[in-house]
Structures are given as C-alpha cells and as structure tokens.
Amino acid sequence: MADVALHPNRVPATKATRRRNGLHNALRRKSTVAFLMTLPLILLVAAFVIYPALYSLHLATLNKSMTKFIGLGNFEFLFKRDTFWLVVKQSCIFAISAVIFKALIGFIVAHFVHNVPANKQRRWRGMLLVPWVIPPAMSTLAWLWLFDPSYSAFNYTLSFFGIGPIPWTGDANWARFSVILVNVWYGAPFFMIMYLAALKSVPEQLYEAAAIDGANWWQRIWYVTLPMMRNIIAITTLFSLIVTFANFDIVRILTAGGPLDHTHIFATWAFRVGIEGSDIPLGASVSLFMVPILAVAAIFILRDISKRGNEA
Amino acid sequence: MSTITIDKAGPTRKVKKYGSISRDRAWALRWSYFFLVLFAIFSLTPPLYMLITSLKSSAEISAATNPWWVYHPTLENYIGLLTSNQFLRFFWNSAWVSIIVVTITMLISVPAAFALARMKFWGSATLATGVFLTYLIPDTLLFIPLFKMFVLIGDWTGIQLINRWYVLLFIYPTLTVPFCTWIMIGYFASIPKELDEAAIIDGASWFQTLTRIFIPVALPGLIAATIFAFTVSWAQFLYPLVFTTSTDQLVLPVGIITTLIKGDVFNWGQIMTGALLGAAPPLIIYAFLMDYYIAGLTAGATKG
Amino acid sequence: MAEVSLRKVVKRYDEVEAVRGIDLDIADHEFVVLVGPSGCGKSTTLRMIAGLEDISDGDITIGGDIVNDVPPKDRDIAMVFQNYALYPHMTVAENMSFGLRLKHYPKAEIKSRVTEAARMLDITDLIDRKPKQLSGGQRQRVAMGRAIVRNPKVFLFDEPLSNLDAKLRVQMRIEIKKVHQKVRTTTVYVTHDQVEAMTLADRVVVMNHGRIEQIGAPNELYHKPATRFVASFIGSPAMNFMPCRLEDVDGRLHLRLTDRLAFPVPPARSARYQAVPRTERLLLGIRPEHIAEARPHLHPGVEPFEAVLDVTEPMGMETLVYFTLEDTPICGRVNPNAGAQDGAPLRLAVDLNNMHLLNEVTGVVL
Predict the structure, then answer these.
(1) How far out from the chain centre does Cα C39 lie?
(2) Greater confidence, C234 or A18?
(3) A274-288, B69-83, C84-98: which has the highest mean pLDDT?
(4) Same domain for A127 and A238?
(5) pLDDT tens-digit profile of C333-352?
(6) Cα B111 to Cα B188: distance, rounded to the nearest angstrom
(7) What chain A residue is nearest to C5 in terms of C-alpha separation?
(8) Which of A168, B196, B222, C243 minimizes the number of CB atoms within 10 Å of its CB?
(9) pLDDT at B164 over 90
(10) Residues A51, A148 within the same domain
(11) Using CA atoms, how far apart are residues C24 and B64, in angstroms rounded to an integer?
C-alpha cells in the first residue's frame, strides 16, 4: 500500500481494475445478502400464496373426482344453478351495503370523537374500537345468542315497545339484514380509527381560514375535510371492500348460509361445496369469482400507493 | 343531520368573535357525547352480553328471565371450562400456534423489511409492492387449493399434515408476514439515512446495524407488528376449520364452535364463557398496548 | 493524525458527474472547509472521503494509504452529521461509546475516553440522558463527542451547524474551533455558509459545479479571489460587478463605466492592466465596503461620484445603500451619520485601490 502511495503514477492500470473488482464484489455481496434476507419471504409467498392461487385455476378445470380435465365445465354448471346467482347477488348486496354503512358510521363517529376534548378522546376511541379487537368468530357467537330464536335478548327488549318477535336469522330478508348488521358492527371501528387519524392530520388553520372566508359547516366538510381525507377514504373503502367481499367467519357462524342459501356469499358457499360437499374443483371455481373484484380494488390501491410514492 | 351541523361548528371554536359560537360549541359537545354513548352501547353490547350470560347457570338461562340481568351469578361455567381438558387443549393449541407464528413472522419479515427498506437491489421495489399485493389476497381465495396441496403432500411424502395443528404454522404466516413486512418497511424507511451511516462509520456491520440500531429504534413498529401477527393468528377461523377436525388438534375459535354447539342443544352459558375467554388475550393486549395496536392498524394505509 | 489527499477524484451518478476530478491535499492537523452552493459536490466529496460513497475514478489517500476500497469503519475517521444522527435509544454515554464498544475496547478505557470528551465539551451532566431530552446545541456537542472519543485520524463534518438557530450557530462555531485547537485532528468540514468557512478554516476550498474554484486561506480568498464565482460567493453583502472597459485618456489608463462616468486606474494597478486589450468587455469588481461616503480629503485612488439612492438599510454600525448604475444594482456601505436617505442623492467615493478587474466572458480575475 505504501508503495502505491509513493508512486502514484506507476500503477494506475492495475489499480483501476482492482478497484472495479472490489466495488463490483462489494455491490454483489450487498445485494446477495439483501436477497438472502428476503428469500424466506419470497419462498413463503411463492409456495403458499402464488402457487395455490395458480393451482386453484387448474383445480377449477377438473371434474369432481379430479380425474378429468373438463375445461369450463364447472363454470357452465354454476351458471345454470339458481343458487349460484343467489350467491352472486347476496355477495354484492352484502359487501356493498356493509361497506357503505361502515364508511358512513365510521365517518360520523370519527367526527364525534374528534369533537370531544383531546384528553377524553383516548377513552372513547378505546371503547369504540373493541368490536374490531375481539376475534370475529367469538363476537359473532354473542350475536348469534342475541339473535337466538327463543331467547333473543333483542326481542325481549323490543317486546316492551310492542315490536316483534323478529326472526333475526330465520327469515331470508331479516337474516340478510343481520349478517350486514354484524359486519357493520365489526368493521365500522376500523373506519372510525382511520378517519380519526386523517381528521387529526387536517391543519386547524384550514378550518379557521374557511370560517373567516364565511364557509358554513357543510361547506367546510365539503371543501376542506373531504378533499383532505379523500385519499384515506378511498384506500380504507377499497381495503374494506376486499375484506368484506371475502368475508367468511360472520356469515358462516351466524347463518351458515341459511335460510335456504339466502345469505351465502362466495366464501361460505365455496366452503360448503368444496370442503363440506367434497367437490374441490367446484369450490375452487366459486372462490375464483372473488378475483375480479379483488383485482379491481387492488389496482386502485396500487395506483394510490405509487402516486404517493412519486410525491414523496 | 342537525347533529352534524352542530358538530361541525367545532372547528370554529377558536374564533371567539361571536358569543353564539361558544354556545354552539357547548351544544355540539353535548350532542357528541349523546351519540358517542349510543355508539358505545352498540359497540359494547355483544361483549357485555357475553359476560352477563357467562355468569348465569343453565337453569337461569332456560328460565328466560330478564336476559340483561344476572339474578344468581355463578362461576360454574368458568370452572367447567377451565377444568375441562378439552378446552384447555384448545387454549394451548391456540397459544402455541400464535406464539410460534409470531416468532416465524418476525424472523421472516424483519430481515426482509430491512433489506427492502435499506439495501436497494435488483427488483427490490417490485418485491415491496408484491408483498403489499399479497396482503390483499384473502384467505377465502386460497383455502381450497391449499387444502388440496397439503392432501397431495401427504399422499406423496407420507408426511401427514392435514388434521395436525402444526399445519397451521405453515399457513398462518401467509396472513401475517406480508402485512408485518409492509409496516416494518414503513418504520425502517422513516429512520434517517444518516443513522445507519453513523453506525457504519462507528464500525457496525449490516447485521449489527439491524440488531443494535434499527430494531431498537423501530421498536414501536416491531411491537405493532407483533400485536398484529398475534391477533390475526389467534382470531383465524377458516384455516383451522378446514385443516383440522380431531378435537385434540383444534384451536380455540373452532373448538368452541364445533364442540360446544352440539346439534341443536346450545349450552349458551358455556359458549359465551368460551367466547369471552377466547376474546380475552387480544382484549388484554389491546387494553395495555392500545397505542401500538392503533399505530399498527393505521400504518398499513398511511405508510408507504 | 494524518494527511488526506484526493487525486483526480470523480463521482458519477449514471449520466451526471457530481464531482469532476478534484485534486486536494490536506496537511496533518489542518482544518479545511469545503464551501459552495448546494449541488456543488462538496458533500459528495466528503462522503467519498468517509467511504459512504464509492469513487468513480481517482484516488483518495488517508495517512498515505489508498483507501478507495477500504470500508468506512477501517478508514479510522469520524463524522458529524447535519441532523446529528444520534442513536435515539441510547444515552449520551452509550452514543459516544458505541463505536468503541463495537471494537471491544476495555471498559475502563471506554469510560475514561467518554469522561474526557464529555469534560472537553462541557456535557458531563448530560451523560445519562437520551438525545430526545437534549437541546439542539447539546445534541451537536454529543455528536462531536462521539467523534472525539474515537480519536480518529480525520474528523469529517457535514454541515453540522445548519440545523441550529443563528445565535447558537455562532456559539458552536467557536466551540468547534476550540476543540480543534485542543485535539488538532485533521478536519474536513463542509458548509454552504461562507461565514462559517471564513471563520473556521485554515484553508477554504470553494467548489462549484463539481470542481474546485479556488483553494486558499480565508483572507486570501477574500482579497484575491481567482474567479467571479469566488469573488461573489465570499463576502456579504456580495461584491458588486459593473460592466466596464479600459481606455487611455491623456496617457493615463482609465476605467470607463458609463458614458458620463470614468475613473482613472490607480498607478499601482495600471501596470497590471496595461496589456489588456482596450476593446475587451470587462467587469469592475468592488466590495460594498469600498464604496463609502465621500470624505473631504480623499486618498489617492479613491474617486468620488454622486448617486441617487434607491433603498437604504440601516444596520446600526453601518448603513447599506443601494443604487443602480446603468441598470446594474450596486451596494455600498456608508457611515450611519452620512445622511443616506431613500430616493435622495448622496456623494459617494469608490476605493479603486481594492478593485478587481474581471473578464466578463470567462469570469477570470485579471
């Protein structure tokens, strides 16, 4: 090394190549290490997410005993069945109305919480988030008990007002209402928390400026709050749409698809035909119908994320 | 609607020019509390009803007295469940699965997040996006092919994984790892670049930078991710329902639903007790670590 | 303790050359400041010395050894960052000793070094606090302490004072100078603030567009800038530049500024400028302090003229006056009692003994 330093002019060629190799090695070492650190993640996702996702495409083209390729036979079969169309309809009704109510209630409650003094907000937020914390399978059991045909605590209460008894899970329309109600109960707190975080990020000066400009409460929501929260509203709604569309626990436990398959959504019906009915290819075909809506929502979310990435 | 009117007068509270505004403000606060109480009742009714029912004897439940009140409180349901080997088995299965899954999740996602946040390499940006997309793929899309996959693995290798609780150790990470990696990327990326440069100059290797600087500094994120992984594993219902059937292999949610609901004979006192005990671990964690819990919840959408 | 030298050092990012071949020799114990506008390559140069950036071409030696491929930790350097980069989860003592602990120094030695550095920087009382509990100036001291305990060959400072408020910056500047007087470690210091550069440096390196414009002692740069860039970058308010050309009047060299305004060049300077073609487009460079109110008895080379002031800025010990000459804005510094008023005419005098003459096209000082 000292030699090199003393005669800097004599060794430029060897030095240059050595450096390039050294740099090259360092770079390669760094990305190799980085790659190794992500390898378990890649393997996990490849083996247990991507492969099964593709595998289900393959499964959907087989016959019930999985011995023969029948192309789109499963789908043809599904399209001819009334239950399938019932499931499509119910899935859309369930997901869309649940998400709308979750978003609305979340928005309103977030405003109420935002409105109380800051030192009391924590307590309210803590209480209102409890539905989201309880495992849905457990809380749905409580709802099932609240909706019990003979011992319903709701019907007991309503009887004092001369209402009821309401067949919460016994009648098709009431059962549809009930699963949506439970889903809204479970999911609204998530919206509330997200909106609350977004509300807190709106600078107070904007409201003051709007108030000085003479905006009334509605104009302030419309021109200040909503535009500032647009991103978070969009992304939370899309998230929730995916999760609600793919819901299983609540419907399975509350009605198990009944009465007469009127509350089945894709996931519960796929479980019924695929696992309970041992027709795995048909079950796979049913669950594949969730893909389009998921894909659309995912594209919108990704667009939002890459947009934010560019801004940053 | 009128409630929102009054509510939205809130932000003007600092403009103290008009006396009416502070009066509006007081009313807004009263209405806010009124509706918050209503929403709190709505939110807390099911868990409270679990508690009420769990304290009743079967006789009191079938007597159909006021369902909202306990006339003869008893701990017999708790004693019954906590001395039942079957229930304890469910509980331990759940606990083991959740703890091991949390460990696996952290071991996979923390190094991956570090690599993706700091060591830019070919395809790292795509991989980060891919991780996020994976998080969006729901369990209900994958349970049928996964089930078939594990059946085939059993057929080919003779290693029986179906109807073993440890099969869940392979599957749960698909739910926890993508999200945990995603939020850890966010937390790691928010650490100033100079901090790792200072560590490098101080002589720390990549591994030391991760363990001695990044993990301690991003500890809140790590706790949030751990809580998330634990609650997801604890609450998961579909996969154990599909993959396990023998009563000694079941985890808590599935165990309660399949064993306590016997045909049409619902032992509601025990079911509610079981549900409450099943809800207890996440609730306790939430009660003590609420801020981390909420940070993790909002991190997914606000980071990145 | 060591000298640092850079030989034809180049840094390329894809197509962009951030540093375009820098030669620089820093002597042992020397305090060198790299100064220049943002994007001039000064930080990149510092980071290449630190080893945080790879060198695209050229050589860097520290203490006689080529360190091109040596990782930062083996270069025996310490660095102070702009945002301090203190480890938020460690106490002050732990922050300062982190590097030593990684190298498995004996506990007693670590303790004595930390105590010594803390005493030197007057942060002994803060030793068990976390960075969050410290003020900006205290954090800055800790960051310096972290560098000092390592007892490295070279200190590197990357804009260490930019995050401090003006008052604290002056205070810490003095602190840094004191520390350097005590430990005498070779120091490379990067800043965009020419005042910092002037006050701290043994030698200042002015950089622009990835190249070194001039290297010299602070006073040398101030009084003998080599280029228009250096002349305008060093000194505040900046040097005035007025378009002009040379002409011969009655056998004497004159500076023609406008049709109505021309000054004789002082005899001491005439010889130097005699060879410049009379048609060349030139710039007269003159610092604001050399444009002052006209006194009754003017020294030779000090030429009076009258100007209508646009704006005056009373600064207390002086008043800055702004006026225009053929659309060129000019700033002068006059005595507060000279009676300068906005919009009023004032009799001023320019001290041509301190003039600079520049080629307008190349920007080179003649």
Answers:
(1) 15
(2) C234
(3) C84-98
(4) yes
(5) 999 888 888 989 999 999 99
(6) 11
(7) A5
(8) C243
(9) no
(10) no
(11) 93
Element holding A180 (H helix, E strand): helix A172-200
Q: How far apart are CA B234 and CA B229, in angstroms?
A: 8
- CA distances for A190 relative to A131, A240, B41, angstroms: 9, 9, 17
Domain assignment of residue A66, yes or no: no
Smallest Cβ distance to A44: which of B108, B139, B257?
A: B108
Please report where in the chains the tokens 């706790």 appear, as a residue: B223
Domain containing residue A21: 2-59
- Using DSSP's 3-state secondary structure scheme, residue C103 falls into coil
Average pLDDT, chain B: 83
CA of residue B58 relative to chain centroid, distance: 31
- Map residue C348 onto helix, strand or coil: strand
Same domain, A94 and A50: no
Q: C62 to chain A, minimum CA–CA distance in Å?
A: 10
**Tally of structural domains, chain A:** 2
Do the domain assignments include residue A65?
Answer: no
- A64 within domain boundaries: no
Coil, strand or helix at B92: helix
Flag whether residue A260 sits within 8 Å of chain B, measured between CB atoms.
no
- Check pLDDT > 80 for residue C23: yes
Hey, which residues does C26 pair with through a beta bridge?
C4
Residues of chain A whose pLDDT is less than 50? 1-21, 311-312
The Cα of B244 is separated from the nearest Cα of chain A by a number of Å equal to: 12
**Residues A190 and A281 grouped into a single domain:** yes
DSSP state of C22: E
User: What is the SS3 assignment for C199?
Assistant: helix
Considering the domain architecture, whether residues A216 and A303 belong to the same structural domain is answered as yes
Name the helix (H) or strand (E) containing C264. Answer: strand C262-264
Does pLDDT of B173 surpass 90? yes
CATH number of the domain to which A266 belongs: 1.10.3720.10
> Residue A2: which of C57, C64, C69 has the nearest Cβ?
C64
Instruction: Indicate the pairing of strand C31-35 with strand C203-208.
Output: parallel
Mean pLDDT, chain A, rounded, equals 82
Residue C254 φ/ψ, nearest 5 degrees: -120, 155
Interface test with chain B among C62, C97, C101, C102, by most B beta carbons within 10 Å: C102
- Intra-chain end-to-end CA distance of chain A, in Å: 44
How large is the ipTM?
0.84
Within chain B, residue ranges assigned H as helices are: 2-8, 19-54, 58-62, 76-82, 85-118, 124-136, 139-157, 167-189, 193-201, 206-208, 215-217, 219-235, 238-243, 252-255, 268-288, 290-302
Residue with tokens 């290297």: C215
Last residue of a domain, one of A59, A82, A102: A59
Place of tokens 């006396």: B19
CA–CA gap between residue B278 and residue A142 (Å, rounded): 12
Q: Which amino acid is at B164?
A: R
The answer, for B213 touching chain C at a CB cutoff of 8 Å, is yes
Whether A218 and A300 share a structural domain: yes
- How far apart CA A102 and CA A188 sit, in angstroms, is 4
CA–CA separation, C219 vs B175, rounded Å? 66
Q: Are A11 and A137 in the same domain?
A: no
Q: How does DSSP classify residue B16? A: T
DSSP run (H or E) holding A54: helix A51-59
Of residues C54, C57, C66, nearest to A5 (C-beta):
C66
Q: Is residue A138 part of a domain?
A: yes
Same domain, A168 and A218: yes
Residue of A nearest to B117 (CA): A34
pLDDT for the residue B262: 65
**Residue type for position B276:** L
DSSP codes of every residue in B198-262: HHHHTT--HHHIIIIIIHHHTHHHHHHHHHHHHHHHHH--HHHHHH--SGGG--HHHHIIIIIEE
Q: Is the pLDDT of residue B5 over 50?
A: no
